[in-house]
Amino acid sequence: MAENEPGLDPLKEDARITSLNERMARAKTEEAIRKGDGRDKGDNDYRLGNRVLAELVGGLVGGAVIGWTLDHFLGTSPWFLLGLLFLGMVSGFWNIIRISNQRSK
């Protein structure tokens, strides 16, 4: 008998609630962009790869140039070149290891 009795009509969706939901979604999107969460992970990986390459090449080239310059002025043939080239390679790999340990996000 309760089915036949008049009851409360279901409420229609209020336009204020719809507007509030839209504003909250927009605010969440803006906050994600502000915090940098909206960025593509591929972009960060690309930057990291470029940084690793720059560390390795920079260490090698820097060691080679400084070693060659010292050899040229001191007349010690290839010894400073080889020694500083090796040190540049070691420092490049050391920086790459340091960068890879830093990236645990």
Automatic annotation (TrEMBL):
Annotated keywords: Hydrogen ion transport, Ion transport, Membrane, Transmembrane, Transmembrane helix, Transport
Q: Does the keyword Ion transport apply?
A: yes
Superkingdom per UniProt: Bacteria
TM ranges are 52-70, 76-97
> Can you name a GO cellular component term?
proton-transporting ATP synthase complex
InterPro entries documented for this protein: Atp1_alphaprobac, ATPase_put
GO biological process entries: proton transmembrane transport
Per the record, the similarity remark reads: Belongs to the bacterial AtpI family.
Function as written in the Swiss-Prot or TrEMBL entry: A possible function for this protein is to guide the assembly of the membrane sector of the ATPase enzyme complex.
Which named protein is this? ATP synthase protein I
- Its source organism is Sphingomonas turrisvirgatae
